[in-house]
Amino acid sequence: MSMFLDTAKIQVKAGNGGDGMVAFRREKYVPNGGPWGGDGGRGGNVVFVVDEGLRTLMDFRYNRHFKAQSGEKGMTKGMHGRGAEDLIVRVPQGTTVRDAETGKVLTDLVENGQEFIVARGGRGGRGNIRFATPKNPAPEISENGEPGQERELLLELKVLADVGLVGFPSVGKSTLLSVITAAKPKIGAYHFTTIVPNLGMVRTQSGESFAVADLPGLIEGASQGVGLGTQFLRHIERTRVILHVIDMSASEGRDPYEDYLAINKELESYNLRLMERPQIIVANKMDMPDSAENLKIFKEKLAANYDEFAELPQIFPISSLTKQGLATLLDATAELLDKTSEFLLYDESEMEEEAYYGFDEEAPAFEISRDDDATWVLSGDKLEKLFNMTNFDRDEAVMKFARQLRGMGVDEALRTRGAKDGDLVRIGKFEFEFVD
C-alpha cells in the first residue's frame, strides 16, 4: 500500500477568548468597593507553517481535528487573563488550502517557513472594570470571550517541480528519471509501476539545475478518473515545462502519434491551462529496431496535422538504456526553463478575498424565520456574536443584551412579522418570551 497521501479534509477550531470577570475591591467611599474584574485572554490561532522536511499529507490521515487552546479568564485586581499560544500545524511545500464550504482557495503554501492563519482566535471578553460609568460606577456586567473561528478545510498537495514527465504507462519515464537524477524510483515491466510522484534533481553539463517529477502513467479517460486518473494529474500544474515521453518502439502495440494526441487530450480535459506549458517531445527507446522508422512517421504526422503558423515542439530522440541523446535533451530543457516564467495556478475568482474578521456592513444584522413549532428564530452573525458574548448569569448583562436587540430593530421587526405578546423566540438553543 502506498504511503503517499496528497489530499486530506480536516477541521480546525481556533481558541475562544477568555471570559471577562465581575469583581469588586474593598475600598472606603467607593460604591461596592469599585469594579476590579479584568479582561479575558485572547484565544489561540491555528497557523499552518511550511516544513520542507515533509513530503506528503500522511500526518493528516489519522489526525483530522486541530483545536487551539482558549484564553484564560480575567482575574481580580483588573488583571488580564493570559492569551493562549497559537497552534502550529506543519504542512509540506506545495500545499493548497481550500475552504470546504465555499471551495475558495485560502492560500498556496510553497516557501519553506511560510505561515498562514487558517482560523483566528476570539478576543477576550471585557471585565466589569470596562463598563463603569458615572451613572453606574459599580456594574455587574462582563462579557464572555468571543468564539474562535471554526472551519473545515481541504488540503491538496501539488509537488514542486520545474519539469514534469508525462506519458502512457511503461514508456520509460521512471528509467529516464533514474538515469538523469539520483532518484531511485521503482522500475518494472508492467503498467502502473509508478503509483506515487517521484522527484529528482538534474544537473546539466553546463551547470544548470532543475527539479524533475516522474508522474504516474496516464491513460485515456484519466481526466475523468480512469486508472490513477486525477489523483496525480494535479501535480503537473506546478511544472513550467512538460517532457512528453513517447515509446517510439511501439512495443505496447500502440501508435506513437496516437499516444501523443491521447495524453494531450487528457491534459487539456483536466485543465485547459496545462496546454499553455511548453512541451518537449522525448522519443524514447531509440535503441529498439523499429524506432527510427516510427520516429520518421511520427514527425510526418505531427507536421501534417500542426497549424502552419504554430511552432512545432522540439523532438529529442533518446535511449534511457544506452544514455543516447540525454545531454542534448537536458541542455534544451534548461534553456526552455530559463525562458519560461511561473504559471499562475489560481485566478482571482478562485481565491478567497483577504480574510476580514469583523462584520460585513452590507450583510443584515439579523434574520427572522419561523420554526415548525411556531417559535420565532433569530439568526445572523452579528446577533449570534452578541448572544455568545453575553453572560446570562448576570441580570445586568441580560438587560444590556435586551437593549442591544431593541437597538438593532429586532423588537420592531418581530412586531411587523406578526409576533404577539407571549410568543417564544429562539436564538440557538436559548428561548425567551416576546414582550410587546
From TrEMBL:
Keyword set includes Magnesium: yes
Protein name stated in the entry: GTPase Obg
Family label: Belongs to the TRAFAC class OBG-HflX-like GTPase superfamily. OBG GTPase family.
Binding site for Mg(2+): 174, 194
Family matches, as InterPro entries: G_OBG (IPR031167), GTP-bd (IPR006073), GTP-bd_Obg/CgtA (IPR014100), GTP-bd_prot_GTP1/OBG_C_sf (IPR036346), GTP1-OBG_CS (IPR006074), GTP1_OBG_dom (IPR006169), GTP1_OBG_dom_sf (IPR036726), OBG_GTPase (IPR045086)
Protein encoded by which gene: obg
GO CC list: cytoplasm
The OCT domain, residue ranges: 358-436
Primary role: An essential GTPase which binds GTP, GDP and possibly (p)ppGpp with moderate affinity, with high nucleotide exchange rates and a fairly low GTP hydrolysis rate. Plays a role in control of the cell cycle, stress response, ribosome biogenesis and in those bacteria that undergo differentiation, in morphogenesis control.
Localization annotation: Cytoplasm
Needed co-factor(s): Mg(2+)
Domain Obg: 2-160
MF terms in GO: GTP binding; GTPase activity; magnesium ion binding
Keyword Cytoplasm among UniProt keywords: yes
Pfam families found in the cross-reference section: DUF1967 (PF09269), GTP1_OBG (PF01018), MMR_HSR1 (PF01926)
OBG-type G domain location: 161-338
Source domain of life: Bacteria
Enzyme Commission number: 3.6.5.-
Stored CDD domains: Obg
GO biological process, one term: ribosome biogenesis
Binding partners and assembly: Monomer.
Binding-site list for GTP: 167-174, 192-196, 214-217, 284-287, 319-321
Record keywords: Cytoplasm, GTP-binding, Hydrolase, Magnesium, Metal-binding, Nucleotide-binding
